[in-house]
Amino acid sequence: MTSELTTLLDAAHDAMIAVDATGRITLFNSSAERLTGIDASKAIGTLAQETIPNTRLHIVLQTGEPELNQVQSLGANEIITNRVPVFDQNGRAVAAIAVFRTVNEVRDLAAEVTNLREIQTLLHAIIHSTQDAISVVDANGIGILINPAYTRLTGLEPEDVIGKSAEVDIAEGESVHLKVLQTRQAVRNAKMKVGHKGRDVIVNVAPILVGDELKGSVAVIHDVSEMRVLSEELERARKRIRKLEAKYTFEDIVGRSVAMTAAIAAAKQAAQTKATVLLRGESGCGKELFAHAIHNASDRKYNQFVRVNCAAINENLLESELFGYVEGAFTGARKGGKKGLFEEATDGTIFLDEIAELSMNTQAKLLRVLQEREIVRVGASAATAVNVRVIAATHVNLEQAISQGKFREDLYYRLNVLPIVIPPLRHRVEDIPLLTQMLIERFNHDFGRSVKKISEDALARLCAYDWPGNVRELENVIGRAMIQAQYQESTIELKQIDLPDSPMSIGIQRGLPGKATIAPLADVIREAERNALVTAIAATHDNKTEAARLLGISVRSLYYKLERLGLADSVK
Ligand SMILES: Nc1ncnc2c1ncn2[C@@H]1O[C@H](COP(=O)(O)OP(=O)(O)OP(=O)(O)O)[C@@H](O)[C@H]1O
User: Which parts of the sequence belong to the PAS domain (predicted)?
Assistant: First the structure.
């Protein structure tokens, strides 16, 4: 026997014993030594049935019949044996071979095979169900596996790819598989075009190394056009979030008084309809808060909420702002024209705050929108249909405005479909403790304070006041009190509640001026400026840069103003 053959047989996991025609052992490999505990040098040349009593090789020689899968004992082991005769050209048995291994080894092997099958099934399921296109080539760059996502992306079927060169799917660019096989290094984010349609893709390819041996490479291919669509969708969603200005919901409206509960219930009901809503109430009582909440509780919540302060926009611009304009509508008109706020709010809500401030001319145009549900851009001849829910708000007594000829009666009826009256704070004193607590928490957060509550006498003072500026005014009073409070203070005290107690000053805030209280405008402005500076300096703990930022002025300008108002020393 050649030495190569001996080495090979010694390396085999199976035990092997061969006998010649006389039944003497001619081969006894290492595994046979291991299983029998007999040295090959001692076994070779002996009669097999004498050295190993139940080899039965002499019987196989006699009968010429193979004995397959025989289980028997060998020392402490159970073994499974195959014995086969070897014949010459004349059909005479000239040798016999026994190949055996322990039953445990066979069981382990069977389990390993089962495991491998399970892993294979699992891999198959994963590769076939993933949305990522996958292709695998062997070490020679020949295709061995693709998945259905690959076929969807490239249009290539298994028969086009399996057994073919890795370059078969490339429409433009070089094969990354071949590069990875050459370098044994993974390649990430390679751009190329693949398949019949030359689809833009990004490819990640990794070598398959078993130990040190290169077995092939695997590529995961992403469709760029799909990614582009997804990122565009993401951008659209981001824009929507950015533009979604309605930040409050009904959860944010504080109030358990009967009047407030009724207003909230009416607003919740209105949210379920498409009807125009008219929010009425004094300044600062929460009309805008309600408008946000109605929008956010309606089926338009994922679309635009556009707020228009009718009092803040110049009358000449208002029409083009609301309804847009066509190219060349007026000098300075943008090329291609411009969408108006009604169109911006398509499928969403437009909140027309301070509606009573609209000119009679714009009122007529708004009436048309409400009647026809269409707008005409400035300079356009045709109308465009718009699907927009209108919420209007005013603190003005519209009935009185009608009788004074300042508000169109027909528009009033169009707007007044679902009127919701938000009661002034003085009519719902029982809400003051709740609102105060909510504000304390908000300002703790904003100013970094840790105030817990308000003292009883301070709260009593708040409840006795009649709040012409409503919740906005309460916000200011609590805000000021918390700025004044020392850091360690946990209760707002009466002395920190800064409320005007003269009935005259209340009158001024309600728009009922008393001559005695009117001061020269320059003094009023100077006083207001002084207050603003002191508050900002206090709120920022004397951080001039931050105070200037809050006031919207430069630091230099802040120092100048402090100097001019004689505050430079007191706030140092
Ligand atoms: N019920 C409430 N619960 C919580 N916060 C409220 C409530 N009502 C009003 N506010 C707060 O008071 C401030 C004024 O409210 P809002 O701007 O909605 O009033 P408004 O009636 O629209 O005022 P204006 O007529 O001056 O525009 C806001 O900061 C708002 O969040």
Answer: 1-45, 119-190
